[in-house]
Every structure is written in C-alpha cells, then in structure tokens.
Specification:
Helix 1 (about 1-10) runs antiparallel to helix 2 (about 180-239). The protein is of the alpha+beta class and about 240 residues long. The chain contains 2 helices and 12 strands. Strands 4-7-2-1-9-12 form a 6-stranded mixed β-sheet, covered by helices on one side. About 30% of the residues lie in helices and about 30% in strands.
Length: about 240
C-alpha cells in the first residue's frame, strides 16, 4: 500500500503548465512572426525548431524579445537558410517574465505564401525547473503547424498539425484575422475556450491523482494502525 501511495504521488509530479505561442502580423509583403512563452508557462529550459516553407517565405531578420534578454536568462539561435529552419535554445532561472516574448522574425512573402501552413514548429524539449517535461501546449496563427521533433515543414511526408487559436495574441497586430468588431468578439470567445482546454487537460488528471494520493495515504495509515493494534493484542494474549 505504501508503494502504491509513493507511485501515485510520483505521477502527480508531471508538470501541468507549459505553453508557447507563435503569432503573425502582416506588413505589406512582410510576414512578422512572434514566438512568445505563455503566461505562467513555468518553462525554464527549452529547445524549439522554427522552419519555414520553401518557396513561400524568405528569411529577412530576427530580433530578441524581453524574455530572451531578461536577468537569469540565456537565449541562443542557429539559422540555416538552406535548410529553411531556425533553432532556438532557452534557459532561465527566473521564468514567467511579464513579457514572455523570446523572438520576432521577419519574412518576405512570395506568391506561394497563401498556401497554409507555411511555418512549422517542433518542440524538441520543454522542461520546468525540476526537469519535468511540460505539456506541448502550442497556440498561434493558422499559418503555423506543429511538426515532430527533429523534423521541418519541408521534410518529405511531414503533415503539420494545426495549432489552437492563440489566446495571448495581440489582435490588433493580426489585421487579416479580425475583419470586424463582431468577428473580434467571436474570436475572443473562441480563444478563451481554446486556451482553457490545455489547462483542463493538465489540471483534471493532477487533481484526480492528488485525491488518489490522499485516499491511499489514509488507507496506508489505517492499515499501519490496525497492524500495530493487532500486534499489541497478540503480545497481551501471550502474557
């Protein structure tokens, strides 16, 4: 029983936060993507690969955000223009900055940029301060798709998975997505529902396992008490 109790408590140590957003804004023939850690993400070590569709986007430049240059943070990038990918490495002793922006990347759009998705995001690693793997909760623009770790959007046979609509995107920057005030309100409602899902997915199992820990702990204590009383009773009879 004690072993089961310990196993149950171990299971609850799986992190229930995490979260990354890749949003887009358009400036004429430019597509600007912002990679941002979600609020309360608890991410302290991460490696991401951002790849862009060959023939659809041309890399121009990049600029680090406040989270990348914050105290206690280390941020590195590795660009391969031939392979059409950009690797991001992040370590921080002080996560959950007020502005979680890691990087802003500017691309020049081509005639093929209308085909979606044109950006692939691979989460190679995402951990909290205790070294626990964090859930890969990814949100962003509809032009962004999730690809397996170690792969890019240009690899043969890769079908990017759609991300959920970003709940931390600045709607004012995405003019193409917001056509009217009513559309914006509807988008906000959808974003609220989308952002709630990963929390529920992460939170419900944690609460269930916490309850199981308590139940198993109580049962373990009861069994120990019963065993002690029984032993004392046997000793009394022997006397």
């Amino acid at each position: 029983m004690l072993i089961l109790f310990m196993l149950a408590c171990t299971i609850t140590s799986y992190a229930g936060e995490g979260g990354l957003s890749v949003t887009r804004s358009d400036e004429g023939d430019l597509a600007v993507y912002t990679i941002r850690l979600a609020p309360d993400s608890k991410v302290q070590a991460a490696n991401y690969t951002l790849s862009y569709k060959d023939g659809a986007l041309e890399f121009l430049d990049q600029q680090e955000g406040p989270a990348a240059s914050a105290d206690g943070a280390m941020f590195v990038t590795n660009l391969d223009t031939e392979g059409k990918w950009l690797k991001l490495g992040y370590i921080s002793t002080n996560p959950d900055q007020e502005d979680g922006t890691l990087l802003t990347v500017r691309f020049k759009k081509t005639d093929e940029a209308s085909e979606m998705p044109i950006i692939g995001l691979a989460v190679d690693e995402m951990k909290d301060g205790d070294g626990n793997d964090l859930p890969q909760s990814i949100s962003g623009d509809s032009s962004v798709g999730v690809v397996p770790s170690g792969e890019t959007i240009n690899d043969a046979g890769i079908i990017p998975q759609a991300v959920q609509t970003s709940s931390i995107e600045d709607k004012g920057n995405n003019k193409d997505a917001v056509k009217s005030e009513n559309a914006g309100n509807m988008s906000e409602q959808l974003n609220g529902n989308a952002s709630e899902s990963p929390e529920k997915k992460a939170g419900i199992p944690g609460k269930s396992m916490a309850t199981l820990c308590i139940i198993l702990g109580i049962l373990a204590v009861i069994l120990i008490i019963v065993a002690v009383l029984k032993k004392k009773g046997l000793l009394f009879r022997q006397r």
